[in-house]
Structure formats: C-alpha cells, structure tokens
Amino acid sequence: MSDSEDSGWCTIESDPGNYCATCTELLGVFTELIRELGAKGFQVEELYGLDEVFVADLEPIYGFIFLFKWDATLESKSKKQATSPVETPPIFFAQQTVQNACATQAILSILLNVPATASVELGPDLLNFREFTQELTPEMRGESIGANEIMRRVHNGFARPELAMVESKKKGSQGKQEDPFHFVSFLPIGDTLYEFDGLKSAPISHGSCGDAWIGAALKAISEKIDGIQSAGSGEIRFNLMAVIKDRASLYREKIDQQIRLICQLEDSLRLTPASDSNDPRQHQIQALFAQNADLEERLEEEQLKMSQQQRENARRRHNFVPLAVALLKEMAKTGELAKFTNK
C-alpha cells in the first residue's frame, strides 16, 4: 500500500485523481522502471474500459495492474480468500513488508511469473533474484525485495524529488493522512487466474480460466470495483493498466516478417513469371506493402511516444526546488517578491 511514511522506499505518486489528466506519465514511469530493472520487451498501457474490445490491440498481455483506494473494512469482508496454490508451474508471490513498495511489487508479480515461452527477457538481475528467493516464504521474499538495493534504487529514482523531501519532513508527524491507494496484479498461472495482493498471505485464486484468462480477469476487476462502489463510498478513482509486449519491438518483428514474405513472393515471380495481371502473388505483394506502411506509421508513433515519456521521466526526476528558491531570493533582492506577497 502507498503510504506517506517509508522505510527507505519513497512514494511513487499513486492517487488516480492526481494524475488522471496525465496518465501517460505513469505509464512511462512503469515502462521505464521495468527497463531499468533489466527486463526487455515489456511495455505498460492503460485500459479505458473493462470490455475485451479495449484489449484486442494490446495482446500479447502478460498481466493487469489495478489501482484502487484501499479500505480495510471492505478487504476484511471480501469473499475471495488467499489460498496457497499448488506451485505447478512455480509461482513467485511475495508479501509486501515494505511501505511504499506496492507499485514495484505489483510489477514484479507479473515479470517474475511470465512463462518461459514468452518472447521477452527478464535480465540477469531479476533472474538471479527469482532463483535466490525460489525456496523462501512469501514473507521472506517481501523482505528480500525491501533489502534489494537495485530494486530500491530504481523505484526511488521515479519518486519526485520534491515529494521525497516533503515525506522526509513529514515522517513521524501527525499531519492529515492521505487516502491510501494500492496496486494489485491479475495474471494467469497455468490454467488458473490469480490476483496478487502483497497485503495477503498468498495469491487469490479466481478459478480455472484456460486461454480465456483476459476475460476472466476483466470480470474479476469489474466485480472488485462493484464491491467498492456498492459500499456507498461513491469512489470513482480507479486505474487499470496492462503489461504487454513492447509495441515497437512487436511492430519491427511484424515488418521483418512481411519483408521476408515479400522477398519470397518476388523470388517466386522471377522463377515463374505471372501469366497475367491477376496473378494472386502480385496482389499479395501489394497487400503486404500496404500493411507494412501501416506498421511503419505505428512504429513511428510508438517511437515518438517513447521519446516523450523519456523526456517526462527526466523532468519528473529533476529537482526544481533549488531553482525556485534561487529565483525567490533574487526576486526578494530586487523587490519584486514584495509585489506578490503584499497583495
């Protein structure tokens, strides 16, 4: 759960009401956080609805991250209870033992459970961590996450410097408590859909789903939202994200496949020339060129989006407080500050 106090882990802004106008910022944060953990081939995208039509263009999907306002009373009444699954295949589940780590922990729950058949790379750091913690209890895995310097450094690198300063001053104070928001993950393990919540003792099984896990996950999330809203809180702040295959890599792979097909068809035409203009091979080549043009356009859009996210992350990480203080001091020297303070 995201909290104002920390144990070496800073808060990554998590109130949907605070960033709803700039959701791209959080998506960029999570995508780059994954890359800085050493994983390759992943991307995080937001979902704007709970119908499967909203995920059609996002597959392959490795898991969902759901953000909501946490309520202890509602959680205690939840009918879905944590169950210790039969670990076949092996399941990585860690309890959250460190404040403010829930965002990174929700991401790790997906990354460290991605099937070996997926065309992505975890990188040596995550692979070594998964192997090291394989025989540990969920609680000890949570402690291992908290003690992992690489994970803590990457996580803290995305906390706004000015917010980290405020948190440091607030630590131990009795100021107004902010609404606690929490991240959980939904993903398939084998034929079963699980909900990974670090505040539970084990994953929550949502039953057998087979290949239809995406629809089952969206239904489970919808039921979770209904449960929160039916409590009469009027809560509307939710956010749903999908961890998917990196779109730029996916488009490049498709473009390369299309080019190989075009070359094969052109070689075929050279060996066996078309008897007339209606040769289906010529129509196939034209269709493939048209598809490639569309893929090239999508790739360009993704590259532009990635550049924008990287610039936003750099801005987010820069501490503007010293600059603001210096400007205020200079305004005070010239008498300009008094014009504003005396109004």
TrEMBL record:
The source organism is Paramicrosporidium saccamoebae
EC class of the enzyme, as a word = hydrolase
Q: What is this protein called?
A: Ubiquitin carboxyl-terminal hydrolase
Q: Where is this site: Transition state stabilizer?
A: Q96
Provide the coiled-coil residue spans. 285-319
Q: Where is this site: Important for enzyme activity?
A: D197
Please name the catalytic residues of this protein.
C102 (nucleophile), H182 (proton donor)
GO BP, sorted A to Z? cytoplasm protein quality control by the ubiquitin-proteasome system; protein deneddylation; protein deubiquitination
- What's the family? Belongs to the peptidase C12 family.
Q: Which SUPFAM superfamilies match?
A: Cysteine proteinases
| GO cellular component term of the entry, any | cytoplasm
Q: Which reaction does it catalyse?
A: Thiol-dependent hydrolysis of ester, thioester, amide, peptide and isopeptide bonds formed by the C-terminal Gly of ubiquitin (a 76-residue protein attached to proteins as an intracellular targeting signal)
Taxonomy of the source species: Eukaryota, Fungi, Fungi incertae sedis, Cryptomycota, Cryptomycota incertae sedis
Which Gene Ontology MF annotations are present?
cysteine-type deubiquitinase activity; deNEDDylase activity
Give the matching InterPro entries.
Answer: Papain-like_cys_pep_sf, Peptidase_C12_UCH, Peptidase_C12_UCH_sf, Ubiquitinyl_hydrolase_UCH37, UCH_C
Give every UCH catalytic domain span: 8-245
Q: Which Gene3D superfamilies does this one have?
A: 1.20.58.860, Peptidase C12, ubiquitin carboxyl-terminal hydrolase
Q: Which key words tag this protein in UniProt?
A: Coiled coil, Hydrolase, Protease, Thiol protease, Ubl conjugation pathway
- Enzyme Commission code(s) on record: 3.4.19.12
Judging by the UniProt lineage, the source's domain of life is Eukaryota
